[in-house]
Design a protein that fits this description.
Helix content is about 20%, strand content about 15%. It is α/β, with parallel strands linked by helices and about 450 residues long. The strands form 2 sheets. Strands 2-3-4-6-5-7-8-11-13-12 form a 10-stranded mixed β-sheet, sandwiched between helices. The two termini are about 30 Å apart.
Length: about 450
């Protein structure tokens, strides 16, 4: 449940527990940093990825070097797991659209080039395309495991690079007051990231850098390079995305973006890792005049700080209230109620670690979207109930992160994810949960 405080605040079974480690797991066309995701030893390459980090935009630099022909002609990297095989290919998004800048209109650029990652199973058994969106600062090449699970489940899969820096919280939080500039900031900022349209005063990106434009160009490029690969099935005659043939997962910022996309478009399936939406911060009171925070009567932080509070007092001792972003309660296009979302609750699934901050609001988000109709949260941790998890759409984990990462990062970054048999293992501990949420079907 949300609280008032002070601060500035698939099927079951995955088969064998190992990937074929005779195959070097190096990101194709991304040779600047070795990416040993299978063995999960690339700590330096992932430790700062997919996390809500402080905004360091002053050190961001633009990569204006165009991709080479070799980078636009990626070599297939084969992998095999439990008798199922697939290939991975990474490519610079600018191969598909040279007008992509990776920068905002005011010159704030991504810290580094981020490749798209395509994973195609040898035996395609699902007609939908699975798309994964990483968290703030994350790279698709650092989140291979969720795409591997999609390929194992029979999907063509695409890890899409997008304008995911800085975090939505960094965009929307006023450092002076400690609360959001406006309660609509998260929705408008996400919409601009997704559409590339000028809807947010807190973010300015060009149309070609919008997530949907990047996706449409990537699909066109893949179809051009592989005419018999079936990529034309995911666009209509005008080149627009066929959302009813798309399944999506997203972690952190990516999960919130998938939450908004599934509000406005009829996805075949949506899977939220950590969150499907976030919370917003508003001023709920003043310590000097009110004496206590609003709603639950919690002690108010004074200027010296209150030991009951997790964070220092914000805005000179003001009480900060956390509530769900207003768009959570709206339907397609921001109209109506959550019952009017374009993607029905029967197609929505979520997985949250109980030790991360998202646990304080994601259950309320999922309930608002009707995901609790199939039961409460069930632990996905190994040794528990296991698939089919009583048919629930809500799973939780309490596992410790690997390689010094946070509980939040453990839900998205390959190197931080807990593994079967401990952090030296190779199979993600959430593998069976992923497969379940990628394949469980519900009558609508």
């Amino acid at each position: 449940a949300l609280a008032t405080g002070c601060g500035d605040d698939g099927g079951s079974g995955g088969g064998a527990d190992t990937l074929d480690t005779s195959l070097a797991d190096t990101a194709v066309a991304d040779t600047a940093v070795a990416d040993t995701a299978v063995a999960d030893t690339a700590v330096a390459d992932t430790a700062v990825a997919d996390t809500e980090v402080a905004d360091t935009r002053d050190v961001f630099v633009a990569d204006t070097t165009p991709p080479t022909e070799a980078e636009c002609s990626p070599t297939a990297q084969p992998e095999t797991l439990a008798g199922k095989s697939w290939t991975l290919r990474a490519f610079d998004p600018r191969c598909a659209d040279p007008t992509i800048t990776n920068c905002t209109l005011d010159g704030v650029c991504l810290k580094e080039q981020k490749d798209n990652l395509v994973v195609v199973p040898d035996a395609i058994t699902r007609p939908e395309l699975w798309i994964h969106l990483g968290g703030s600062g994350g790279k698709p090449t650092n989140a291979k495991n969720i795409l591997r699970a999609a390929a194992y489940s029979g999907y063509r899969a695409l890890g899409l690079a997008y304008m995911n820096e800085p975090s939505v919280a960094d965009r929307c939080n006023d450092p002076v007051t400690g609360v959001d500039y406006d309660v609509t900031c998260s929705e408008k900022t996400r919409l601009e990231v997704i559409t590339g349209e000028d809807v947010s005063p807190w973010l300015e990106i060009g149309a070609s850098d919008g997530l949907i434009s990047r996706l449409e160009h990537a699909l066109a490029w893949l179809d051009d390079r592989d005419p018999s690969g079936g990529w034309d099935a995911y666009r209509d005659g005008e080149g627009h995305v066929r959302w009813d043939r798309i399944a999506m997962s997203g972690f952190s910022q990516g999960g919130g973006n998938v939450g908004l996309i599934s509000r406005d478009h009829p996805l075949r399936r949506a899977f939220f890792l950590s969150k499907g939406a976030g919370s917003v911060k508003t001023l709920a009171g003043d310590c000097a005049s009110d004496g206590s925070c609003a709603d639950d009567g919690a002690l108010c932080c004074d200027l010296s700080g209150d030991p009951e509070c997790d964070e220092p007092p914000a805005s000179g001792g003001k009480c900060v209230h956390f509530e769900l972003a207003p768009w959570v309660h709206t339907g397609a296009g921001g109209e109506g109620t959550a019952a009017d979302r374009a993607t029905p609750a029967a197609r929505l699934y979520g997985l949250v670690n109980v030790n991360e901050t998202a646990w304080t609001y994601s259950p309320d988000v999922f309930a608002a979207w009707g995901m609790d109709a199939w039961g409460d949260f069930i632990s996905a941790d190994p040794g528990g109930e296991g698939p089919p998890f009583s048919g629930t759409h809500q799973l939780s984990s309490a596992l410790e992160p690997c390689n010094g990462g946070s509980f939040h990062q453990s839900m998205g970054a390959d190197a931080i994810q807990p593994k079967i048999g401990g952090c030296d293992g190779q199979k993600p501990a959430m593998w069976d949960a992923w497969l379940y949420m990628m394949s469980h079907e519900e009558a609508e």
